[in-house]
Design brief:
homotetramer, Rossmann fold, Dihydrodipicolinate Reductase, domain 2, 2 domains, 6-stranded parallel sheet, 15 strands
Chain lengths: 319, 319, 319, 319
C-alpha cells in the first residue's frame, strides 16, 4: 500500500450511526484520505476533523470513490449521480442489493468480483451474519431443505438509526427486549433468500424474526438448521474451518459460542456451532455474531473498498 | 379474606433474588403474615422488616405454610422437614417438579388440584412462559408434531442467581448478549416436555435455546410453532382468548406482541401471536413474556399459595 | 378510609412518564377512583383500564380533585380552569411552585398547610431530595452560610420526559454520563433557594449541577455541606432521626449511604451522611436518593392529595 | 519508528480489565512486540494471539521493558524483580506512585523526566483526570486555596476490577448509582494531593467523592473550583488552551462539556469549563472525562512507554 498517495474518498451521509462509523474508520485508514463527508442538518459542523458539507455541495470531482450511508430510497439517487461523474461507489443502503447493476459485496463470498466492480452494494447487517453462517452448510448440501430454517436475530439499537423516535428512547429500550417485524416479511428477507439461492443453492423456507436488544451495538443470530445427515461437532466445525481458514475477518470458534463482546468494534464475524440433542432428526444450531456498524455496515464497506482498490483487504480495520 | 387473622407463613431462602422478591411480596400481602425468613450468611440482618434466621433455626411450628426458594438440591431436604412437621409447602426449586409427591403449580393449568395439595412444585421460569404459550395450541391439536417446535428464550440476569460469578459481572454482561446451555439439554427441558405431554398431549420434538439478556428482570420467548392447518390471525388469537378469558394473570394481545416492559414487576404472562408469511407450510410465531422473578417464581408461588389456602387468587399480587 | 366511596379523581396529562406513573398508582389506590385521564395524541387509547380523553373534553364536573402532569407553561392554564370549576388541584408542573396562590407540597415540611389547601404545587424532583436533605441541617443552624453548598445531582432519563429527542435515544445515553445545565442556572434553583430560605432560614450560596444517568429512574444527590461546628457521625444522624422519626416516607440510614435501588418504585427519600476527613474546616457529605417519578413527582402528589382529602397519608403508596 | 525491529515487551497481569486492554493495545502497536503476558488461573489460555504464562515463568531476559497490571501490593515485588534483571518498567499499580524510586508518569506533566526513567509509576485513573483538569488553574494561581475544591467523580464498573463480588454483579449495578468510599479518605487522595502540591503548588483542601456508574468504561469528574479572581469563559478556556495546545491526547472543549462518549476507547482526556452564576464569590466548574482503562491506565502506560523508548508518543494509541 502506497501510504504516500492515499486514495481520495468521499462519504455521503455521515451523521447517522453508520456514517459516523465510516468516517471514524476512514479518517484513520492508512491508504485513504477523506476529501468530503456530507450531512444535512449538521452541515458546517466538524466530525473527526472533517467539515461536513451538504450532499448537493459534495466535490465529487475530487474523489476516486464514494461510500454512501444515505438512507434507503435516497442513496440510490446520489450514488447514480456519483457514477455518472465517473466515480466508483460502495452503497451501504439497500437500494442496489437486489439489482444487477451492482456487485453484492459480501466480501468473503464475492471477493473475486470486486476488483472490477464499479458499484458495490454492501449487504444488510442481518443478512451478513446469516449468510456467512449458512452458506458453508448450504454449499456442502447439509441443509435439509424440506424443513424450515429458523433464524432468531437480535440487534443493538444503533441498527434502527439515529432519527429520534419514541420507541428508541433510553426510557423505552433500557431493561426491555422485544421482537419486531414479526410475520416473516422483514425487508432483509428477499436479500437473504436471493443470496442463499444464488451462492448456496438453497431454496428452502426461512423464518426470520428480528428482536431489539438493549445494547448499542451488535447482532447475534441463533440459527436453527435442519440437517440432511447426522454430523459430529468436529465435522461441523471442520466445514467452517475449510471454508474460512484463510479469512482474516471470520472467526470460527471451537467448542464455544460467540457473544457480542467477541465482535463489537471489530470487522469480524464470529461463528460457533452446537449439535442438537434430544430430537429425532439431525439438527445443528449455529450462532453468528457481528458488530452491526462494522462487519454489518461501515467495516465491510471499507473491506470491499480495499479489495476494489487493490489495497490490503484489512487496511484500516481491526478484525 | 379475613384480614384480621392473616395466615402465618415462613420463607426459606430469602437472600437470593427470588427469595427477596418472595419476602417483598409477602410482607405486603393482606392475607399473610411472615413469621420467619431464613438466610445463611445474612442471618441476623433485617429485610423488609423481617429479621433473618438460619434455616435450621426456623420456627416451623409457628407457621401454616412454607415457601422455599432454597437452591436446587438443598430445598428438597428442608421442604421434607417442613412436611414432616405437618406443614404445607410451595417449593420453588426444581426438586419436586418431576415428582409424583407434588402437585405441579402452573396455576392456570393445574388450579383444581391445588386446594387439596399439601406440596406444590412451583414451575421453572422458562417452562412457565413456554407452557402457557404452547398448551392452548397443543390442546386444540394445532401443533404439527412431525415438525420441531423451536423456542428461543432470553432471560434477564437475575435468573442466574445472586452468587458472585465472573460471567455475571456488570463488566461482562452489559452491552453483551449470548446463548448459553446450547445443545438442547437445558435442565428445564424435561419439565417442559413432561408437562406438554401430560397436559397437552404433545410428544413431538422441542429445540430450546436460552440466552442471557443485559437486563435485570424478564423472560421473552419466541416460539416457532409448525401448525397442522392454516389459521388466520383472529382464529389464532381466539384460541388463546377462549382458554384464558377468565384468567386474571394472562394477557392475550391483539395484533401486537409483548415486550418485557409489559410484564416486569407484575404476576402476568403476556402472549401475542403472528402468522408466518413466505413459507410453504403453516406456521405460527408465538411470543410470551413474564417477569422471571414474579410469574416465573415468587409471584406464581404466592398465586399457588393463595389457591391452596382459599384466599383470593391475586391477593398480594399485581397482575 | 372509606373504601366504599372512593374519591373521584381526574388526571391531566397521562401520557408522559410522570402521568403514566400517576395513573398506575391512582388506579390501584384504595381510596380514589380515576374518573378521567387526559392525553393529546393518545386520546382514545386505554391505559391501566382508563380510556384517555383530550384535556378539553375532561369531565371536570365529575371529580373532586385533579392532578396535573401537563407540561410546564400549559398546566397552569388547565389547573386554573379546574379551580374555576371549584375543584381542588395538585399541580405537578413548575407553574405554581413560586406562586403565593398555591401551597408548596413538600409533604414532610408543609403538611399542616395541606388539609385546607385548594391548590398544591408539587415540588420539583431535584428540590425534593435536596430540601429533605438540607432542611434539618439548616433548621439546626449547622450550615456555615459563609461557604458554598455544592450539590451534584444525577437523574435517570425519565426525568427528561418522553418527547423524542436525539440526545435521549438509547444509542446516545447508554454507556454515557454527562453534566447538563451547568453554570448554576438550572430552572429548579430558584425553587430550591426560596424554600431553603423560607423553611430553613438558609440564604447562603448554592452550586447545583445536574447530570444525566444511563438509568430509567432515580435521582441521587451528593450534597457537600460546610458546617458551623464539628459534629460526630451519631450527632449528624441524630439530627435527621429527630426530624424524621415519625415520617413513613423518609429513611435515614445509619452508617450507610443510599443508592438508587433503595428507592426506585417507592415513595421514599433515603438519606445517609458521612463526615469529611482530611480537611481543615468541618464538613458533612449528605447523600439523598429518590425515585424521580414517585417521591419526586407522582407519588408525592398522591401523598399530598391524601393529606388534603383526609385519607391515610400513604394510601396507595409503597414507602 | 523502526517498524522492522519492534521493541520486545512483557505484560504482567493480563487477565484483569486493565491487563486485557494493555494486551489489546500492545498487540496492535506498530513499534512493540509482546514477548510474554502473564496470568495466574488463565495461564495456558491464548488472548489476542498471546499464550499466557504464569508470572513466575515470565521470560524476563527476552524483553526490554515490562508493563505491570498486577494488583496493588503484588505488582511491586515483580516489578522489582524485573528491575533487578535490568529491565525498565511501567507499573500500573499504586505501589510506586508515592515513591521516590519511580518517575510519576502523568505524561503531559512529567514528560521531560520519562526518557531517562528506569521505572515509571503510572497514575491512578481518578488522579489522571483530576490533575489534568486542576494543574493549569493551580499553576496560574487561580485556585482560591482558602476554600475547598470539591470533586465528584463517577467511574464505570471496570474500574473496580474483574474479581467476582456480589456488589459488582449486573443484577446489582444495572439501574443503580451510588457513592462509595465517602468520607474523603479514598486511597487515591494522597497521590492526588501530593501531585497537586509538587506540580501545581496547591496545598489547599480537597473533598473527593467517588461514585459507581452503571457503565462499563469511563470516568467523569465534576470539579468545583473556588477562584482567586473573576474570569470570563474565554479566559478560562484560554488557560487550558495555552497549557495543552500542543498535546495530542488532551482535548479542550469550547463552550461545551465532555461526556463519556467523547473519550471511551481513546487515550484522551476531554476538559470543559463553565462559569458559576448566582454565587457571591468567583467559582468555576471544570468537567474532565477519560476512559478509565485507556488514558486512566493502559493507554497512558503505553504513552509513557513510547516516550521512554523514544517512539512516537501516540504510537499504537487513538487519541
Amino acid at each position: 500500500m502506497n501510504i504516500n498517495s492515499p486514495v481520495p474518498v468521499g462519504v455521503m451521509g455521515a451523521s447517522g450511526y453508520v456514517g459516523q462509523e465510516l468516517l471514524r474508520l476512514l479518517t484513520r485508514h492508512p491508504g485513504a484520505a477523506v476529501v468530503f463527508a456530507t450531512a444535512q442538518s449538521a452541515a458546517g459542523e466538524t466530525l473527526d476533523g472533517v467539515t461536513l458539507v451538504r450532499v448537493d455541495d459534495a466535490p465529487l470531482a475530487r474523489v476516486e470513490i464514494v461510500l454512501s450511508a444515505l438512507p434507503h430510497g435516497v442513496s440510490g439517487r446520489y450514488v447514480r449521480e456519483a457514477r455518472a461523474a465517473g466515480k466508483r461507489a460502495v452503497d451501504l443502503s439497500s437500494d442496489f442489493r437486489l439489482s444487477p447493476e451492482a456487485v453484492y459485496g459480501l466480501t468473503e463470498v464475492t471477493r473475486p468480483r470486486l476488483p472490477a466492480a464499479e458499484l458495490v452494494a454492501n449487504p444488510g447487517c442481518y443478512p451478513t451474519a446469516a449468510l456467512l453462517a449458512l452458506l458453508p452448510l448450504a454449499q456442502h448440501g447439509l441443509i435439509d431443505q424440506s424443513r424450515e430454517v429458523v433464524i432468531d436475530a437480535a440487534s443493538g439499537v444503533t441498527g434502527a438509526g439515529r432519527t429520534p423516535r419514541r420507541e428508541l428512547l433510553f426510557g423505552e429500550v433500557a431493561e426491555d427486549f422485544r421482537a419486531y417485524g414479526v410475520g416473516n416479511d422483514h425487508r432483509h428477507l428477499p436479500e437473504l433468500k436471493a443470496t442463499l439461492a444464488r451462492e448456496g443453492g438453497f431454496t428452502g423456507d426461512l423464518v426470520f424474526t428480528p428482536h431489539l436488544l438493549p445494547v448499542k451495538r451488535g447482532i447475534l443470530e441463533t440459527i436453527h438448521v435442519p440437517l440432511t445427515r447426522v454430523v459430529d461437532q468436529a465435522t461441523a466445525e471442520g466445514i467452517y474451518d475449510a471454508v474460512y481458514a484463510a479469512e482474516p475477518c471470520v472467526r470460527v470458534l471451537r467448542g464455544a459460542l460467540p457473544s457480542l463482546k467477541d465482535v463489537v468494534y471489530r470487522n469480524r464475524v464470529a461463528i460457533g456451532v452446537a449439535l442438537v440433542a434430544n430430537v429425532r432428526r439431525p439438527r445443528l444450531t449455529v450462532i453468528a455474531a457481528i458488530d452491526n456498524l462494522v462487519k454489518g455496515a461501515a467495516g465491510q464497506a471499507i473491506q470491499n473498498m480495499n479489495v476494489m482498490l487493490g489495497l490490503p483487504e484489512t487496511a484500516g480495520l481491526v478484525c
